[in-house]
Amino acid sequence: MNTSETSLATVIRERRSVRKYDPTVKISQEEILDILKEAALAPSSSNLQPWKFLVIQDEETKKELRMIANNQEQVETASAVIAVLGDREMYHNGEKVYRSSYEAGYMDETIMNRMIENTNKLYSSAPVGIRENIASFDAGLVSMQLMLIAKARGYDTVPMGGFNKQQFIEKFNIDVRYMPVLLLALGKAAQPGHPTTRIPVEEIVEFI
Fold first, then answer.
1. Position 56 in a domain
2. CA–CA separation, 123 vs 94, rounded Å?
3. Backbone angles phi and psi of 53, in degrees to 5
């Protein structure tokens, strides 16, 4: 990280949703991959990591995506747009995830086999709507982590839920296993994001 001295508190306070980007700033695929590797350390249900990322950097493709995303300027001017997809069939990741933990020495073989079996039974039998809720929730966790990591590296982001998901699926041939959750612009601000206020925490917290 080129801003390793930046504290988490500072990153949280300085992060803004930025909609005006410097189109001349290009972030390398290598650095985007590094950002995503750190973001993917986010927690998820049963550690099944029900997410997939589609990184869109091609200029013509971004122009086309802009039309799918309600003509939002940042889709075209940001260095990249990261589509965060939720995995409806996250239980298929179970064997890979738990075998990796076993090979790393984090669990023994008996626990690994039990986790694989239980995960396959529990998630495969769950209604698709429940699995979609889990995938959406976990996609939110990884997306927030991604935005904070990007800010710590000196970049800016904005999450976007306002896009035609069916058109996105058709344009990018998204497998039925995955569902588009959000688009996330990544780049360098040409104008700072607007400061915002928050409801006083005292009004929304109750200690019991």
1. yes
2. 10
3. -120, 135
Residue 125's CATH number: 3.40.109.10
Q: Which structural domain range is residue 31 located in?
A: 8-204
Neighbours of 169 (CB within 10 A): 16
Which residue is listed with tokens 């998204």?
174
Q: What is the DSSP string of 165-207?
A: HHHHHHHTT--TTEEEEEEEEEE-BSSPPPP-----HHHH---
Computed over every residue of the chain, the mean pLDDT equals 96
Tens of pLDDT along 114-166? 999 999 999 999 999 999 999 999 999 999 999 999 999 999 999 999 999 99
Q: Is the pLDDT of residue 30 over 70?
A: yes
pLDDT, one tens digit per residue, over 45-66 is: 999 999 999 999 999 999 999 9
| Domain total in the chain | 1
Say what the alpha-carbon torsion angle 101, 106, 109, 114 is, to the nearest 10 degrees.
Answer: -70
How far apart are alpha carbons 16 and 103 in whole angstroms?
40
